[in-house]
Write a structure and sequence with these properties.
Shape: elongated
Distance between the termini: 107 Å
Number of strands: 0
Order of helices and strands: HHHHH
Strand content: under 5%
């Protein structure tokens, strides 16, 4: 009988306190601090169910409160888009038609100091007409 699975009855099992199994597994006590707080905790499954249903209602309201994902706007094919470069070209053309001596550089537009050019510039900037071709 050389098997390790065979138990020999003549062997004494030590009964000292060190080898004895523990009677209770040491589990941390989570309920004591919770019970010490003055908050109502659910005692029955009905209370738990009511809390669960209230939570589900709140989650539903939260889902409707968040904004939905915005879709990409499809441009209208009948609408003509204009770029800033085209706006600047139109401004220059109107200035030339009005007889303003403003140059084509953007720096010189801001450095005009004559009274007549300032009034014509403000009129041009406040009104831009887009023409269909």
């Amino acid at each position: 009988m050389g098997s390790r699975w065979v138990v020999h009855p003549e062997e004494d099992v030590p009964t000292t306190a060190q080898n004895r199994p523990k009677t209770a597994i040491s589990v941390p006590d989570f309920w004591t601090p919770i019970c010490a707080v003055d908050v109502k905790t659910p005692k029955t499954s009905r209370d738990v169910h009511q809390l669960h249903m209230a939570l589900m209602r709140c989650e539903g309201a939260l889902g409707t409160a968040t904004p939905t994902k915005r879709r990409k706007v499809d441009p209208d094919p009948n609408k003509e888009f204009i770029t800033i470069v085209e706006v600047e070209r139109a401004k220059r053309q109107v200035r030339r038609e009005l007889g303003s001596d403003a140059s084509t550089d953007d720096d010189s537009d801001s450095s005009d100091s004559s009274d007549s050019s300032d009034s014509s510039d403000s009129d041009v900037e406040s009104c831009i007409e887009v023409q269909d071709n």
